[in-house]
Amino acid sequence: MDNLLAQLPALQVVVPFLTVPLVMLLKPRGFAWLAATATSVVCFAIAIAMTSAILQGAPLTYAMGGWPAPFGIALAVDAFSALLLLVITGASTLTLIGARASIDSQITDARQPLFYAAWLLALTGLSGIVVTADAFNIFVFMEISSLASYVLISGGPDRRALPSVFKYLVMGTIGATFYLIGVGLVYMMTGTLNLADMEARVHEVGDQSPILVAAGFITVGLALKAAVFPLHAWLPNAYTFAPHAVTAFLAACATKVALYVLIRFDFLVFQPNLVGHDTQFAYFLMPLAVLAIVVASAVALFERNLKRLLAYSSVAQIGYIMLGASLVNDAGLTASVVHIFNHALAKGALFLTVMALAMRFGDVSLDQLAGAARRAPWTMAAFVVAALSLIGVPGTAGFISKWYLVMAALDEGWLAIPLIATIAAGSLLAVAYVWRIIECTYFAPADGTEPTGHVPPLVTGVVLIAATANVYFGIFTALPTTLAAEAALALQEALP
Amino acid sequence: MLELLGYYNYWVFAVLLMVGLYAVITRGNLIKKLLGLSIFQSAVFLMYITMDKVAGGTAPILQPDLPDQIYSNPLPQVLILTAIVVGVSTTALGLALVVRIRETYGTVEEAEIYEQDARG
Q: How many domains are contained in chain B?
């Protein structure tokens, strides 16, 4: 058993990767879905097994091909990566289980095996970023996941997805290339690609200016990938026009993984080594985070399309995550990591309900959804629960991370007042845009025509499970908060 | 002055990077945007290739009869080989997207595409 445990970090990546060619060959209807879902379930099980090992206090490392770090590529799973792995594999599994009918209606039969293959490649890339401890390996996995996401997003029937994906491809590639330049500069000065080794060697570098430039390139590049305001221009359209199942999957984890790399790289390599980097980091990201929360929430208030509204709300939520990190202290980092988990829960659940609503009503503009609650009471009930979690109402997961964030902000002296005002304003704006949806779906009179779509019970079941998870983790908070506290501690250790 | 000229490769890197980025931002034609993106990525390839060069170094093949031989660093070359593959795949995917955009919209000009979408 211990032997198997030691192999799990590699299996997390290898299992979905090796299933890709198999899935591509499964032409008969339904088989590709079955294989992809089964693989995703196995990945989720691996993530759970690794998390339980880490909760017992043993971080996992794996030397690829038996070459020890820093010469070989090392995989390392700690509390932070375990939390992200749970989010990635959980979102993929839950979405795949519920998404078959939706994908059947949006993707032609002939292209489905390729679609599921791209899904597994995205899963491989996202898990790979999180398990690896090698800076260049992160780049490769990032591009695997990005290329697969471009394919997934452009796979739907809406032609407007194509220009949106093109924009995403251009911006995503610029972001990845910036990251590559940064890694190159650090390698040039330190001669290593292993993150832990980098941390030790950046100390010894005489001239710090290339490292400073590298910090700039890496931060901006990853901010592009993570859609940190104002680099979020690709996100709303890409999320709106993607197939509904893809939106549910990617909204839950794609941007979070880029944030993970941003936080990990910055706190491990740059914060302890560059003079004054903590204030530069805070001065750069805190205003952007505040603007993201206020501006993106305000834009969401005026959107008529439900998917686009939720996409702008995602930009705002990324702001909360950045706000926690930009405080550069233990409490802030904990809040940030908990919010990565809780926002994935809320947004994943919301986009799953959008998927169910789209199957029933055909379109998800607010006009089309007038009176929807009477026709799809369970789905809308799940929507309301997830939306409450998004706002941060006590008893839901979203409340926990907002609570941590407010507590972290209170330590900041005079800065506490504007920060807490921002968090409050963001939450009030969230109340307003969620209320618009509820008003429309619960209180507006429905137009006469009965919608033709049909929602299989499996989809409703998945939606209800996702909503229940939001309540569960709002009451039993031990898992995300323990992992986040451990992650913050590990990130903090490097700080002077 | 001579010292600045000695960084010739890095100057080319910076110029290529900016030329590529400029093309991506200013051109409205999707093919030209992709060309810019390729130039932008190639600039980084040049940076990696430049930094592995050791003065007087030769190809990194171990020669037992020459113990004092200096070798160039092979690692950045291997890294950039991977990055080139990534770049090629990105360009290929981008071109495939342009083909489909052309099929559905009948144009590869960004302005015309948005105009068609705005009309619904």
A: 1
Query: Looking at this predicted complex, what is its ipTM?
Result: 0.94
Nearest to A369 by CA among A440, A302, A432, A300: A440
- Please provide the size of chain A in residues: 496
Amino acid type, A299: V
pTM of the model as a whole: 0.93
Sign of CA dihedral A296, A126, A190, B54: negative
CA atoms of A9 and A7, how far apart (whole Å): 6
SS3 content of chain B, % helix, strand, coil (to 5): 70, 5, 25
Percent of chain A predicted with pLDDT > 90:
53
Quick one: tokens of B93?
């995917």
Radius of gyration of chain A (CA): 22
User: Which residues 163-182 on chain A approach chain B with CB closer than 8 angstroms?
Assistant: 163, 165-166, 169-170, 173-174, 176-177, 180-181
Q: What is the mean pLDDT of chain A?
A: 89
What's the pLDDT at A448? 63
Residues of chain B contacting residue A159, judged by C-beta atoms under 8 Å apart: 104-105
Nearest to A219 by CA among A256, A263, A187, A159: A263
Per-residue pLDDT at A453? 76
Q: How far is B119 from chain A (nearest CA, A)?
A: 12
CATH number at residue B45: 1.10.287.3510
Report the alpha-carbon distance of residue B99 to residue B90 in Å, rounded: 14
With beta carbons less than 8 A apart as the criterion, state whether A184 and B47 touch: yes
The pLDDT of residue B1: 60
When comparing pLDDT for A401 and A29, which is higher?
Answer: A401
What six digits make up the tokens of A192? 């290593």
Distance from CA of B79 to the nearest CA of A (A): 8
Domain with B95 in it: 2-60+68-119
Using CB atoms, pick whichever of B21, B44, B98 lies closest to residue A184. Answer: B44
B56 in the Ramachandran plot: left (φ > 0), alpha (ψ -120 to 50) or beta? left
Residue A82 in contact with residue A47, Cβ under 8 Å? yes
| pLDDT at A163 (0 to 100) | 92
